[in-house]
Structures are given as C-alpha cells and as structure tokens.
Amino acid sequence: MPLSVIVLAAGQGTRMKSELPKVLHPISGLPMLHYVLDAAKNLSDDVTVVLFHQHERIREAIAHDFPDVHIALQDHANYPGTGGAVMNLSFRHDKVLVLNGDMPLVTAEALEPLVREEADIVMSVFDLADPSGYGRVVVEEGEVVAIVEEKDCTPKQKRIKTVNAGVYCFKKEVLERYLPLLSDDNAQKEYYLTDIVSMARREGRHILPVWVEEESFKGVNSRFDLAHAEELMQRRIREKWMRAGVTMHLPETIFIDSRAAFVGECEIDSGVSVLGESLITRSHLKTHTVVEEADIKDSTIGPMARIRPGSVIEASQIGNFVEVKKSRLKGVKAGHLSYLGDAEIDEGTNIGAGTITCNYDGKGKYKTIIGKRVFIGSDTQLVAPVKVEDETIIAAGTTVTKDVPKGALAISRTPLKFVSGFFHRFFGGR
Ligand code: UD1
Ligand code: CA
C-alpha cells in the first residue's frame, strides 16, 4: 500500500537530562530511533525524519543503516511543536503516517491496523488508569472531536482516560489543508499537530480512533521510561530466541543485543550478556559469561568468560576467567585464567591455566600463532609476534620470545635451588 511516513525526532528530550539526543539513547544495543525507522521502512518507500536539536549527530548515527531515509530540518525557532515539525514537508503518497522517534517498541505489525483503515484521519488511542502527561481524546457520540493537551485541559477534560498514543495516519490533502491553519494559541505556545483533529472535525471530516495495545506505543521521555522500554524489548528478544530453540535459565537475568543471533540448539545460563552482532551456533554459554561481537560455534564458554570483538571460536572449551580478543580458536581447550588476544590457535591444542599472549608492546599489537596438538604449560607468556609450530610442548612458567620449531620442548626457567635452614635464619627461633 503506497504510504509516506514522517518520524518526528526534532524535540530536545529535556526530561532525559542528557547530552546525548533522546532518540540516540540505546535500547538493547541500538539507538531507539533505529527501531522506529525499521518499522517505518517496513511500511514505506518514502520515510522522512524531522530533526532539529543536534541534527548533525543524529544524521550521522542513522546514515549507515538508513541511507535512503530523507532528513528534514524543522524551522523550530518560528514553528515549534509537533505541528511545526510536519510543516513544509513533501509527501510522495496520498496517505501519511506520522510516528514519534521516541517510540522504540513500535513495529510494522502494530502499525498495520492504523494504515489499513480508511478515514480522513486515523488516530491511535488507548485507555489509561493514569492518563497524566498524554493528550486527552474528547469523544462525543462515538466520534473524536478534539485532542486536548494536558496543559490546556479543563478539570473535567483532565479526567478523560482515553489518550492520544501519538501516531496518526492522515490523508495527504487533510495535512495540506490544515497545517497552514495551525496556531500557537495554547499553554505551551507551540504548533500542535493534534489541533488538526478538531479543525477537520468542524468541517465534517471523518476521524477514526483505533485502540492500540499500550506496550508498542509507549513513549520514552525519561531514563526511567528508557529502562522500562529496554526491559520490554529484552522480553521480546528472549522470547523470539527461546521459540527458535534456545534454552535460557532465569531468562530475566540474561541480556541479548537485538543484533545477536542464534543458530540451532543453544543453552544460556543465568547472568549471560550477548552483545553486538554476535552469532552463536549450537553452543552453551555458562553463567555470567560476556560475549561481544563474536562468532561461536559448537563450543562451551564460561562460566565467567569474556569473549571480545572479532573472536571466532569453533569446537572449543573456554573455561572460567578466560578472556579472548580478536582470536581464532578451533578445537582448543583453554580451561582457566588466560588472556588470548590477536591469536590463532589450532586443533587439539591445550592452553594451560594462566597463559598470557603478550600482544601489545605499548605501541603496536602483534599476533601469536599456535599450531595443532600443542601443549602450553601453565603460566606461559607468549611474547608476540611469535609462532609455536605443531606438536610442541611449552613447559610451565616459560616465557616464549622466539618461534618454537615443530616437535620441540620449549623451557625457560632459572634452575631451582635449595638454601637449607634459611627459614629459621631469617625469622629466628630454634
Ligand atoms: C504528544 C502529543 C500528545 C500525545 C503524546 C503521545 C502533541 C501536541 N501532543 O505529546 O497528544 O498524547 O505525544 O506520546 O502532539 N517533536 C518535534 N518537534 C517539536 C516538538 C516535538 O519533532 O517541535 C517530536 C519529538 O522529538 C517527539 C515527538 O515529536 O518525538 C513528540 O513530542 P513530545 O514533546 O514528546 O510530545 P508529547 O508532549 O509527548
Ligand atoms: Ca513524548
């Protein structure tokens, strides 16, 4: 269905008390505006975002993922308010859906009923026990006659429980007729988009209210709302993956980025975070593990492991307090307390407890390459760049500063000696 979409994102978001523009505050890994644009792009080939406050920063943040979204700048100084935001835009299609940029839980599916209906104005409403903060919807004889902002309400209007959810589908000619007639004669001295409703009604236009479920239309105005929206988003994400075959233990304690994906049967223990564009295939993430932008396949990770960006781990067992960064591990066991950074480690290799790749010399980062069936003893330091060939043994406590040839034992230790009677000489007694 041909539809133009306008996303309002020019407001300052004062109630967030933040340097960061409100619509860029992240929810489950992505700026909240991202979700709104996703929903908009699913419905339309003509999406415009209206910006003003920190427009450069917002433009930059969305350019990569939404290159074909149009950007419009509101003439905020002369025409503040949601009505001002929609003025002087051009629309390709005869129906225009207006969305708020601070509604991260909205989906194309939730918007569908508004778009499907035929009326001069289709508007989203819901009933709230506590309607405070929202515009009240005045209904007379089953028809919407006006939307009154809370600050302009009479005491009687304040008691109305039906509120404006803030999403509308207009006929283009309705917008074109009434936008120029808006005034800022109200408590906030702003041009209210909502005033179009009463003007259109007076001229006998058909205004259709559509009751929507509150969750998808929740607006984020404060950091409290932000946390609540993220909780709801997490529930959706977890449910999606559980339905796809992922077992979750105490799901409420698990955080999953909206860009992360799971393939096949996976198991996730309590307290796990899966961040960024991670891909987890047939693996078990044990309790309190953190995975960030990593690709993990047929492996068990943790408890309490940290897998950082650029890691590719296959058929491996990573144990507690092991940190892996930008490394490729295939068929590897690293059970305890290690740092493996900028490394490539091949099949059948065992990494002893306390092994450290010394990948950084204060200036550059260097690689450690470890071959097949290598036994790295505990407390080994591998000073990169360094290569350990197949079928070698590194003795516990060794500092590896040269490439280790195939089949060799590498050992660097000062010989152990005994000084007899030293304890009592030092501490006295006997
Ligand atoms: C608005 C509605 C209210 C509705 C509520 C639902 C109006 C006048 N009021 O109120 O009836 O119940 O949404 O959430 O429309 N914006 C601009 N330019 C501006 C001002 C705002 O682009 O000059 C954008 C904001 O960035 C935001 C959206 O419009 O995304 C809504 O603005 P906001 O100030 O949050 O409106 P509410 O007071 O919540
Ligand atoms: Ca709002």
Secondary structure topology:
Layout: E1 4-8, E2 26-27, E3 30-31, H1 32-43, E4 46-51, H2 55-63, E5 70-73, H3 82-86, E6 95-100, H4 108-116, E7 121-127, E8 136-140, E9 143-148, H5 155-158, E10 162-171, H6 172-178, H7 195-202, E11 207-211, H8 223-243, E12 246-248, E13 255-256, E14 261-263, E15 266-268, E16 273-275, E17 279-281, E18 284-285, E19 290-292, E20 295-297, E21 300-301, E22 306-307, E23 312-314, E24 317-325, E25 328-330, E26 332-341, E27 343-345, E28 349-351, E29 356-358, E30 368-370, E31 375-376, E32 381-383, E33 386-388, E34 393-394, E35 399-400, E36 409-410, H9 422-427
Parallel strand pairs: 1-4, 1-6, 4-5, 7-11, 12-15, 13-16, 14-17, 15-18, 16-19, 17-20, 18-21, 19-22, 20-23, 21-24, 22-24, 23-25, 24-26, 25-27, 26-28, 27-30, 28-31, 29-32, 30-33, 31-34, 32-35, 34-36
Antiparallel strand pairs: 2-3, 6-10, 7-10, 8-9
Helix pairs in contact: 1-4
This protein binds uridine-diphosphate-N-acetylglucosamine and calcium ion.
Residues 100, 102, 219, 221 line the site of calcium ion (CA).
Protein model, in words:
The structure is a single chain. The chain is of the alpha/beta class and 430 residues long. The protein has 2 domains: 4-217, Spore Coat Polysaccharide Biosynthesis Protein SpsA, Chain A (Alpha-Beta Complex); 223-410, Hexapeptide repeat proteins (UDP N-Acetylglucosamine Acyltransferase, domain 1, 3 Solenoid), CATH 2.160.10.10. The protein has 9 helices and 36 strands. The strands form 6 sheets. Strands 12, 13, 15, 16, 18, 19, 21, 22, 24, 26, 28, 31, 34 and 36 form a 14-stranded parallel beta sheet that branches. It has an 8-stranded parallel beta sheet with strand order 14-17-20-23-25-27-30-33, with no helix packed on it. α2 (55-63) links the parallel β4 (46-51) and β5. The longest helix is centred in the middle third of the chain and has 21 residues, at 223-243. It is elongated and about 105 Å long. The model has no long low-confidence stretch (mean pLDDT 96). The structure holds uridine-diphosphate-N-acetylglucosamine and calcium ion. Residues 100, 102, 219, 221 line the site of calcium ion.
